[in-house]
Design goal:
By secondary structure, this protein is an alpha/beta fold. The protein has a single domain, classed as 3-Layer(aba) Sandwich (Rossmann fold), CATH 3.40.50.300. The protein has nine helices and seven strands; from the N terminus they run E-H-E-H-H-H-E-H-E-H-E-E-H-H-E-H. Helix 4 packs parallel to helix 5 and helix 6 crosses helix 7. Bound molecules: adenosine monophosphate. The site of adenosine monophosphate has 17 residues, from helix 2 and helix 3.
Length: 207
């Protein structure tokens, strides 16, 4: 199955993708993770996108589209994939349509206030790429999965979160209508626990 996860930053796309890949046995393709890997390894691309990412802006479409096109052409994507964080603009969605035929786009709908709370309490582990929330951590500095040191992502600071949400409204939100018109949109209410939202996704996928 070829799936897209849509939703504002902090809506739970990454968490849901992690659960779905185990269930469906298809890879998660997260453009954010791909860019963060380049940043960490200080590749030329990483250096190019560093400032863009830290300020919460979007990486230019042509760079992002090329990366996704190459990634989806790899063998492990033959039986399907879950796109997490791509497309994020109409231009990206139109480009994707030229080289892939996705089955469904799942929109995880979460209230703005909940999102700001979630993102400001989010902690990231650069060692294992895990994402956690302070409210569930015994120690807000130590990764419960691998013992690595947790950090606050540069783009999770309050000012950047507001910027990212504004960019979401202007650039990414129109994708909901785009996929609705294609008859591919499935919407789930994401204002609930991880397990509840996951259950809702599984049930809309069965319909
Ligand atoms: P994420 O982890 O999905 O929130 O992505 C982190 C950052 O990576 C974003 O704030 C953007 O700077 C960049 N990024 C990820 N996916 C895309 C995309 N599809 N288009 C442009 N920039 C992206």
């Amino acid at each position: 199955m070829k799936l897209i996860l849509l939703g504002a930053p902090g809506s739970g796309k990454g968490t849901m993708a992690q659960k779905l890949i185990t269930n469906l046995e298809i890879p998660q393709i997260s453009t954010g993770d791909i860019f963060r890997k380049h940043l960490k390894e200080e590749t030329p691309l990483g250096l190019k996108v560093k400032e863009i990412m830290a300020s919460g802006q979007l990486v230019p479409d042509e760079i992002t589209i090329e990366i996704v096109k190459d990634r989806l052409a790899q063998d492990d994507c033959k039986n399907g994939y879950i796109l997490d964080g791509f497309p994020r603009s109409i231009v990206q969605a139109q480009a994707l349509d030229t080289f892939q035929d996705v089955d469904k786009a799942i929109n995880i709908d979460v209230d703005k206030e909940t999102i700001v709370k979630r993102l400001s309490g989010r902690r990231f582990c650069p060692t294992c790429n895990g994402t956690f929330h302070v409210s569930t951590l015994e120690n807000s500095e130590v990764c419960p999965a691998c013992g690595g040191k947790l950090i606050v992502r540069a783009d999770d600071s309050e000012a950047t979160v507001r910027n990212r949400l504004e960019i979401y409204d202007q650039t990414t939100f129109p994708l909901i209508e785009y996929y609705e018109k294609q008859g591919k949109l499935l919407t789930v209410d994401g204002n609930a626990s991880v397990e509840e939202v996951y259950g809702r996704i599984l049930s809309v996928l069965k319909q």
